[in-house]
Amino acid sequence: MFEVAELGHTIEKSVYKEKSAQLRAALLTIQAQLKKYPFPVIIIISGVDGGGKGEVINRLNAWLDVHYMRTIALGEPTDEERERPKFWRFWRTLPSKGTIGIYVGSWYSDPIAQRVQQKIDAHALQTELIQINQLEQLLTDDGALIIKCWLHLKKEAQLKRLKELAKNPASKWRVTDKDRQHLGMYDAFINVAEQILTETSKAYAPWLIVEGSDIRYSSLTVGQHVLERLQQHMQQYDAAHAAHNGNDSPLESQIEQYNLLDALDLSLNLDKSSYKKELEKYQGKLNELTRHALAAKRSSILVFEGWDAAGKGGAIRRLTEAMDARHYQVIPSAAPTDEERAHHYLWRFWRHIPRAGQITIYDRSWYGRVLVERVEGFAKAGEWQRAYSEIVNFEEAMLNHGIVILKFWLHIDRDEQMRRFKSREQIAYKQFKITEEDYRNREKWDNYQKAVNEMIARTSTCKSPWLLVEANDKNYARIKIIKAYCERLEKMLDEIH
Q: Which parts form a coiled-coil structure per UniProt (predicted)?
């Protein structure tokens, strides 16, 4: 069972007043320092009903500078949230680097409630915990500090606390029918909570269990824990930063991959007449299928990657010409903004996950971490090396929610790329597409090709494979892409009927 230090410990009001003033000053000082550090702080306050979660959060809000923190209160998912993968609403609310986010209701709330109410079985709970551990490791690998505090009460103490709150006219509003219902499920709740705390208390994100019968004691304990974890995390960051001295030696992959791209037949083509017939056929089919997918509330994510001038934009336009503009969005991914750089690299892509039946098309995507960021040195070696598994888990979350994912790599050879560069320079409305950087990137063609091959090998899964598109001939490439999407939608719709 729970091991809670100093069970039943209480603190006198005068002592609390003195210690809380000291703690507040220390927290404000370290919070001011935090603004200079490139990591966010995520504080999760959870526990037994009546254990003082709300009071502790209120104290933290009073002690900290509200300009650099926010409290995220999440209850039952909204319709908009239910139409997306379950972690979507948490990703949208994650604090930026240098700030603090306190969660009232976290990714633990639903699995606990679902299991206690026997809406999910032990296997489903285990799957949930694996996904939670993956999420927390992903965030902490990126530098985030996760502080998790569980406020515990024995059953007798919980009953006493609820009676006291109900008796007082000023606080009786805090006791709801749901609280009384939960009291009757106390034993089941504790059994589930114990399993969850045991299996999710990791070195990178441990749980602190605090006895919650005395609010002054629990507030000081949690506040002191937050202070100490912040101090420790900053010291570790400073030590690591000093050791690297701002340099990250390149770490090339030791995996030797078969060159998948060289195996493509780039001579494949489609004459103009055949192209027009095929385009009309498949655009008509796509229009019908996307309307059926909308009615079935099944959304799609299309990812377009490829060489500069490979024809991604043209292929996307041929898709969207066949779709209702109210039900798709195209997200062009350029260099991240300041706001995006202040979050995990996946944050900006999570924000655009489509609602049920909608379509999101990414013109370049999260694969930039293992392509341009890897080759150009924008990501440290450790960052892009661990990104393969992070991306697979990210896409698995989409697939588990029923989202259709298609990933296209548009491949052209170097001669065709140069021909298209020169052609763009001669056309007024295409000149903006060509820059000196495009020519400079050609010098790293071999490095990019190596990165592409490893990306394909390490992120192709049975449910989310890469489709390699021979794109020297734009007509052929466009039809292959539209046809592939139609076939995937047909398969999905057949599976649900």
A: 272-299
Statement to judge: residues 306 and 412 lie in one domain:
yes
Domains: count for the chain: 2
Whether the CB-CB separation of 421 and 219 falls below 8 Å is answered with no
Amino acid at 22: Q
Residues 236 and 268 in one domain: no
The pLDDT of residue 177 is 65
Is 104 in contact with 42 (CB distance < 8 Å)? Answer: no
Spatial separation of the C-alpha atoms in residues 293 and 405, rounded to whole Å: 13
Residue type at 42?
I
8 A C-beta contact, residue 189 and residue 112? yes
Q: Tokens 């299309």, residue?
A: 302
Tokens of 381: 């070696």
The Cα–Cα gap between 13 and 19 comes to 10
Model confidence pLDDT, tens digit, residues 340-384: 999 999 999 999 999 999 999 999 999 999 999 999 999 999 999
Domain boundary among 192, 218, 244: 244
| Domain membership of residue 283 as a residue range | 262-496
Asked whether 355 and 299 are in contact (CB, 8 A), the reply is yes
> What's the rounded Cα separation, in Å, for the pair 2 and 262?
59
Concatenating the DSSP letter of every residue in 331-381 gives EE--SPPHHHHTS-TTHHHHTTPPPTT-EEEEES-GGGGGTHHHHTTSS-H
**Co-location of 192 and 302 in the same domain:** no
Please answer whether residues 434 and 417 qualify as being in contact, where contact means their C-beta atoms are separated by less than 8 angstroms.
no
Please spell the DSSP secondary structure of 181-244, one letter per residue.
HHHHTHHHHHHHHHHHHHHH-BTTB-EEEEE-SSHHHHHHHHHHHHHHHHHHHHHHHHHHHHHH
Confidence class for position 179, pLDDT limits 50, 70, 90 = low
CA atoms of 52 and 219, how far apart (whole Å) = 9
Inter-CA distances, 222 with 43, 70, 107, 235, 326, Å? 10, 17, 20, 20, 48
What angle separates helix 109-116 from helix 186-200, to the nearest 10 degrees?
140
pTM of the model: 0.88
- The answer, yes or no, to whether residue 248 has pLDDT greater than 90, is no
User: pLDDT tens, 333-349?
Assistant: 988 999 999 999 999 99
The 8 Å CB, 24+ separation contacts for 378-384 are 379/345, 380/248, 381/248, 381/249, 381/250, 381/251, 382/248, 382/251, 383/142
Establish if 357 belongs to a structural domain.
yes
Cα–Cα distance, 81 to 449 (Å, whole number): 38
Checking if the pLDDT of 185 tops 80, the result is no
Contact partners, residue 247, CB within 8 Å, separation at least 6: none
Q: Are 217 and 129 in contact (CB under 8 A)?
A: no
End-to-end CA distance of the chain: 47
For the cut 50, the answer to whether the pLDDT of residue 6 exceeds it is: no
